[in-house]
Every structure is written in structure tokens, then in C-alpha cells.
Write a structure and sequence with these properties.
The protein has 382 residues and is mainly beta. It has one domain. The strands form 7 sheets. Strands 3, 4, 6, 7, 10, 12 and 13 form a 7-stranded mixed sheet that branches. Strands 14, 17, 22, 23 and 26 form a 5-stranded antiparallel sheet that branches.
Length: 382
Amino acid sequence: MKKTIAICSAFVLAAVMAAVPLKAQGKQEKPVDTSKDVQGAHTGLDEGAAKALPIQHEHHGFMQEGMHHAVAKGVTLDAKVDAVGHAITLRVGPMNLPAHTDHMKMPQPPDLVWEVPMEGWLLAYHPRLVDANGGAVPGTVLHHVAFWNENRADFLCLNKEEHIFGAGSEMTDWAEVPGYGYRVMKGNKIRIETMMYNPTATSYDKAYLEVVIPFQEASEDASAATARRNVYPAWMDVTSCGKSGYDLPAGKSEKTGTVTVKYDGMLLGVGGHLHDYGKQIVLQDVTRKETVATLDATADAQGHLESVPVKLFVQQGGYKFAANDVLKISATYDNPTGKLLRDGAMGIAVGYFVAADDAKMAALRRAAKPSHDMSSMSHAHQ
């Protein structure tokens, strides 16, 4: 199955990019068909490569929970703070990306942890891929990246850490929403899970993922800080609070799930995330018997996903949710391959939630787990 993933194209912060052609967002090459690799087992490296990469670990995050991968050696996280420009640049790499390599065969970066250096708000996320000389690398080779705040629980699914940012092949830019920001405390630990692949015919050596994050410090402007409201990422999944990926049957199918809102507040907007052959995401407030949004995906002639739209509620003052509202998420697919695609589907409505009483959200704070070094990962020596 071709993996043309649109993980962020439907996020509320991506609205300003929704109409930008994919080619302008870094899609320089169409992926080749990797259906056999997606169906294949977790061992795709030849004997020599396996010996060169003896350690494996599991990704337990958003995209591929429980899947084992060889660990790419030498990949580190570099964080630079531009105090004048009020921006932080996070850089993951270097990563070598051989042509025609599926995500299960590609040695993957280890989970990395960024410690937030200030108290304030993260305002936006601007991802890009570059080579060692700063030249552009197509976003096609990014399977996904996910940022998790280890110091806060997800407000819809308390069993999960808070997922604050994600990006996929389309590399959609998360723009700032004036007057809003994601609140962080100095010392918060943000885990960065990155998965690469390269379905193109071109190899890329020493590639880097860079994410530029504009910020505002809490102490720098008292009036602006007082006016800024906190947002909470809302991930509403057809698997409810379980593992996001699920097997995609052949032909037409629909999967639904529910989550319960625990706080009064409003949704600023909503978009969605699907995989190839995805047709539609629908978000409903079952308690109020209302459809919040119907999002029809755009795909190419082969069914490979290109984008999912965004519906904004900002001009109407947000879409109001009340504590104990039950939300239903539905994802429809039409898989033409004639076979079951293992972990071939996801269906997630994604937005930003603003609580009516932000003080109640303090209950989400928690102590971070021990640092995610290699000793804490599931691994096996070859």
C-alpha cells in the first residue's frame, strides 16, 4: 500500500495551508507501491544490515504501537534557542534513507526527549526536512513524527500522554492562532518519536528533520500573557483510547468509536487523519444529537490519500462541548486491493480544545517517566 500520509493536513492549525498544492509542501515524488512491504513481517533487513544494526526497539506512540524496528545509529536531538527571534529549532538526525525502503525495513531513530527550557507558550510548529548542506529533502520520506508531553495526560484519554504535535509526509505547517498557545513549564519533557521511510527512487544521505517552534515566555509581556488562552490538543479516535492503527478489510468498511469529554469548553476547529483509501471522517456529539463535522478526504485516482479538510469554529466563538458529552468518531474506507491490510488504517478527528475553566486542567499534570534511553526500550541483540 502506498503510504501518502496526511497526518497534519487536517489539523486546525493547518487551515492556512489547506489550499496549498501538495507539491508546494514538499511532495516532490510519488511513492512506489509498497503493499508487499506493509504486509510483510517486521524483519526486512538482509543479514549484513541486521548485523550492522543489532539493537531493536518498539514504537509505542501514535502511529505504530508495538512494532519492532532496528535502531538507526548516531541520530541525536539538537535544540537551539533564538532568544531574539523567540523561536526554538529542534533538529533530529542525521538519517540515511536508501531508496525504495519501507518503514518496517528502515532503521528508525530512537525516541528522543527535549526538555523545555522556559515557562510560557508554544505558538506554532514549522517542520521541514533538509540535508547536511541545508538543501530541501522531500516530505515524502517522513512517515510521521509525534511530540508527546510526558508531564501531562491527554484530557480525553487519561491512559495516554498528551500528544501535542504531529506531522506526516505532507509536512503541513501549523500556523499560530492569535490569542492562543500551548502552555509549557520549564523542565517539561517532550518525547519525540520519528519514523522515516523512502518509497522514492532517490536515496537521501544525512537527512535531518527540523521543527521550528515560535514561543512566548510567560514573563516577557504581562498584558499579552494574561490575554493568551491555553489550548489542549484533542485527538478523537475511532479506536477510542486504544492503539490508533487497525487492520483494513478489503472493500468498503466503516469503523466507529467514542470518547467522553470530561470538561466544559469549546473546540476551535477540527480536521482529520486517515490513511490511503480513506474516504471520510465524521465527528458527532451523540449527547446533543449533532454532527460536529463531516470531512471528505481528497485522493488520487488510485485512492492514495492527498488531504483531509479543516472545519473552523473560531468565528462562531468555538463549538461548545459540555462535560460528559459523548463524541462519536466514524471513519470510512474503500480498500480496492482485495486483501486485508495489516495496520493499514487510522481514523482520527483532530483539533484544539479550550477549557471553560482552565484551573480544572491542572489535574492533567504528572511526573515524567524516567528518561527514554536505550536501556528502557524493548530490544533484542542479534
